[in-house]
Every structure is written in C-alpha cells, then in structure tokens.
Amino acid sequence: MHAGTAPPGSPRPLKLLALAAAVAAVCAPAAQAALTENLTTSVVAMALGNAVTADPPGIDSIHFNPAGLARLKGDSETLNTFGASIRTSAQFHAPSDFDVGGWRDDPIAGTSTGPVRQGMYVPTYGKPGWRLPAVVIPGVGMAWNKPGSKFTFATNSYMAQAMSIDRTTDVNDPAQFGGRQVQIQRLVWAAPSVGYKYSDTLSFGVAIPISHSAFVVDTNMRFPNELLGVFGKLQQGWCPEDGGNIIDTFGFGVCGGGKEGMVSPFKKAAHMHLEMTAPIDPTLNLGVLWEPAPWIALGAVYQGGSKTNYTGTYVFDADPMLRNFVRGMNSSLLGPIAGAVLGFPSSIPAQQKGNMSATIPFPAHYQLGIKLRPIRLVQLNVDASYAQWGEWDKLTFQFDQSIKLLEVARLYGIPDSGKLTIPRGYKSLVNFGFGLQLFPTEKLTLRAGYEPRKSSVPKDKVDLIAPLPDTKLYSLGLNYKLSKDTDISLTGSYMVGKFNVPANTDCNLNCNTFFNIIYNPYAGLDVAGDIRVRYFGMSYNRRF
C-alpha cells in the first residue's frame, strides 16, 4: 500500500476518527478467543494486528480474504520469510496444606522449568532432532491477471497454524511431565484461488488451501493422585524393605515387585511419544470485499474447518514401578484374582508401539473487518473474528491394540484401553484486532498493530502442552517501494501472556482427586508461568 489522496467530498477527518473510536469502544469489551491462528501467516497482516479483512494484503488475500485478489493487476509474486521464537516458563509451589494421599514432599515443588527451544516437522521426512533457538518459515505465492479481465488466479504457501515447544535441553526439567516436545503445525503447500471483480466496488473470492498437518507430542508421565498415594503408603507400612514376605505371597502380592515396585505418586511412570500426520487436507475460504469509496471498505471471510483425519505411530515405554508391581501381584496367590476383578493386565511390557489414528478438528474461522482512511496520511483497520475452538472439547486417540499401561487405568474409570481420551474443554469465542497505517511519503508506509488475544483455553483448562493464556500481540512494520513494480515489507512482533493456576483448580494440570488421573501431573501444586513469542518477517513483492 502507498499514500494516496483523500477523495473529494469525503467526510471530515474528525468525524471518521470518532466513528473508528466508536467501533473500537463497542468491540473491546467482548474481545475473546485465539489460539495459534494467524501467527506466521502474513508479514503485512502481522504488522496490522491481523486486521486486514477489509484491506487484504496482496497474494496473502488467499488466507485473509480471497476477494482481495481481484484488486491485483497483471502478474505478480511474493516471497515471504518468517522467524519465530517461542519461550514459555512455569514455576511450581506446594501450598501449606499440600498432601497427595499422605505424601507431602513432591520433588517438583519449588522448581522452575528450564530452557525452551523450537523444532519443526518436515513433510515426508518427519521431525528431525534439531533443537533450534527459533524456527524459520519460508513461503512463496504467485498471482495471474490478464489485462482487462475480471478474474485473478493465484496460489500461495504459508503456515496456517503453529505451536512448537522443545524442553529436552534439560533432562530434569519439571515440564517433562507436561510435554517434552510439542509440535502442532498446519502448512498450506498449495492454495488454488480466484478473485472476481463483480463491479468497481464489489469483489468476491474463493480459495482452496491444501494443507499438510502434523501433530507430535512427546512426554514423560507421572500420575499423582489421592488413590495412588494412599496405596503407596499402605505398601510402606506393609512391605519389608527387601520387597516381600510370606504372608504377602499368599495374599495379594502388593510387595512382590520389590523396591522398584513400590508405588509413589511422584515417580515417573511412563514415557509416551505420539506422531501423526494428515498429508492432504483441503479446506475452503470464501470472501467478499465492498469498497464503496476510497476512504472506507468492508470485508468478510469464512475460512472453512476440517475434521482432519490423522494417522501415525505411538510408543509407550513403561518404567519399572508399574511393571514390577503388576508382576509381583500376579506372582501371588490372590493377586491374579484381584487383578482380574480390577481389570489389571497380567503383565506390562517395557515397550509397546504400533499404529494409531485420530480425528482432530481444524476449527472454522469467521472474520469481519472495516477499513477507514479519513485523510491521506492515516488509515485504521478494525477486525472481529470468531474461531470454533469449542470443537476441541476432548481429543481421542485410537490405537491398534490394547495398551497395557491404560489397562491399569481401568481402576480410574477408563474402560477402553485401546484408546486415550484427553480432556481439553476449549471455548469458541470472539477476538478483535486493530491496525494503523501512516503514509508519510509516496514510497514509505509505516504500520502498527495491536491484538488482545483472549485465549480459547479457559483458565481452568491451561496446561503445559498448550500454555496459551490471554495474550497481547504488539507489532511494528513498514513497506518501502523499491521501484514502480517492486516493494519490500518488514515486520517485528512480540506476544506475551501470563497464567496463574492455584492448586486443584485445573483438571488438565493440577487436580488432586481419587479418580482424575488423565491427566494431572502436577496434582496439588500451584503453577504459574508465562509465554513470550517474538517474530520477525520479511516479504518481497514483484509485479511483472
């Protein structure tokens, strides 16, 4: 975009600024929603708080409002590069009344998480072992428009969704139980699109983004809860230190696992690695753009969702605690009978691996926007968006066999050991974005953006796998015309948010009850933390 002149007869600047302020005032109290969408999608949009629905940015219109493609004349291309650094931390504190079934000394209490790095998933290859201080995301787009034609055709590649956390630098990091590695990404590798200029003021657009999606979670697991704690204390009082006695052998075998089979709510119980992809997953974007005058425009876009079908592999590694306990129980006289009643396995292998599948929704997204340019030097954009993250109420992973570790969990009311259901409880909410552009010269455009991203993760559903509280996104950027047909855009952004979860208030993180075991690795602890994301982006645009 570049500077222009305000049209004759346009409203007075003060009236338009008042209108813009009124729009912002009405929108602000209802500001809601946002997870990982639109964070590494467009250099221009990021600079404007992603408030570009009424002023779609060139070829990036494919994502934000494909009707904007109709504004492109001739053939053009854009080259994008994004760099992103995600840092998240957490601190753990035991309140004065901390008690997990009689256990009061959690070794995690009083500790903090360590270094965080990024990773990436390479389509057709997988997730390399790289631990990067930041991840670089390239993109390329092209558009074609014949002189005099009302149609503009285009395609683009970009990252539509991304979350990357690697906490493996410190093997003792307390966050190892809440996601050692998390990689959730949706890479659009092609997006055939068309924009149609219906009239001088009205345009329509359609895009079909075709994505490669990846979902990777690698975590150590522990299961602190009241029932496990009580049982561990029972073992301490009943079992000799060397791990067995004759009475126990003729009983239920609770001591038969020896020292390593002694149960503790704070011991590492297992390691889980899930890795799934959906190589081809198309969705649909529909957009409309109305520009009745140069000083005002209205835009709307529907970004279709998808019930994305993932397939991949899993690995469960069981630590000695549960393996030895089950072995000892089944070596006694009455233990096998009790185990059969409780649905326990006859043994737990050191490792189980195989194939798995899951259907994970990619939420539909709706966005409305207004552009106001009261005077030649100033433009204000305001957008409202709604994403259906409420579809992430729970995630269910289907395995190709019964998982012996999950058979132990039948005691906790989990009947099907061939699948794992992880509660999420996310919400579908509304979010707002604000963008400001200044045009000091014909060649230079200055940009600023602000996006208060109210999280779709409720305060009682936050965890370290998705440490996404309410955040605020601040951005600065510029565009400079190198020549009549080329320009360059630069953007720097910073997003920050904090969370504070008192003990027993979040059953995705720190509930301490008898039966809530999937999944509360920090049961009874106060957990506080933050997330900070830094971005830098550059795009080069050429018309020919």
Q: Could you walk me through the main structural features you see in this protein, from its secondary elements to its overall organization?
A:
With 544 residues, the chain is mainly beta. The chain has two domains: 1-209 and 283-305 and 363-388 and 428-496 and 523-544, Outer membrane protein transport protein (OMPP1/FadL/TodX) (Porin), CATH 2.40.160.60; 221-275 and 312-356 and 389-427, no CATH class. The chain has eight helices and 22 strands. It has helices at residues 13-27, 43-47, 61-64, 226-238, 246-249, 320-329, 335-342, 404-408; strands at residues 76-93, 135-144, 151-156, 158-166, 181-190, 193-197, 202-207, 210-221, 270-282, 285-293, 296-303, 306-318, 351-362, 365-375, 378-387, 394-399, 419-423, 429-438, 444-453, 471-481, 486-501, 526-543. The strands form two sheets. It has a 14-stranded antiparallel beta barrel. A hairpin with a 6-residue loop joins β2 and β3 (151-156). The longest helix has 15 residues, at 13-27. The protein is elongated. It starts with 12 loop residues before the first helix and ends with a strand.
Keywords:
544 residues, mainly beta, Porin, 14-stranded antiparallel barrel, 8 helices, 42% strand, disordered N terminus
Could you write a compact summary of the structure shown?
The chain has 544 residues and is mainly β. 12% of the residues lie in helices and 42% in strands. Strands 1-2-3-6-7-10-11-14-15-18-19-20-21-22 form a 14-stranded antiparallel beta barrel.
